[in-house]
Amino acid sequence: MYTLKELESLPTLSVGQAEDLKIERGGTRVWLSRCSKADGEPYNNKVTVEQYLKGRWVTVRTYKAL
């Protein structure tokens, strides 16, 4: 798990509709949401971890970065 400070210090590799791609390596992507609870997220600073499985990107974990 990455901390909020760690993720915010990384360059943004790509910008999605509501998230910034912070890490992409070895079939894993880590996204940091730019939205908050007020925007409908389950919590502020949501991190989404995706893995490339069977030909598609699948969310394998979400958590609140502290």
Shape: globular
Class from helix and strand fractions: mainly beta
How confident overall, as mean pLDDT? 97
Termini separation: 10 Å
Helix content: under 10%
Share of residues in strands: over 45%
Q: What is the spatial order of strands in the main beta sheet?
A: 1-2-3-4-5
Q: What are the segments in which pLDDT stays under 50 over at least 5 consecutive residues? A: none
How many domains in all? 1
Question: What can be said about the biggest beta sheet?
Answer: 5 strands, antiparallel
**Topology, number of strands:** 5
Please give the count of helices: 1
Order of helices and strands: HEEEEE
Radius of gyration: 11 Å
Explain this structure:
The protein has 66 residues and is mainly beta. It has one domain (4-64). Helices cover 9% and strands 48% of the residues. The protein has one helix and five strands, in the order αβββββ. The longest helix has 6 residues, at 4-9.
Name its key features.
single chain; 66 residues; mainly beta; 5-stranded antiparallel sheet; 5 strands
Would you kindly provide a brief summary of this structure?
The protein has 66 residues and is mainly beta. It is 9% helix and 48% strand.
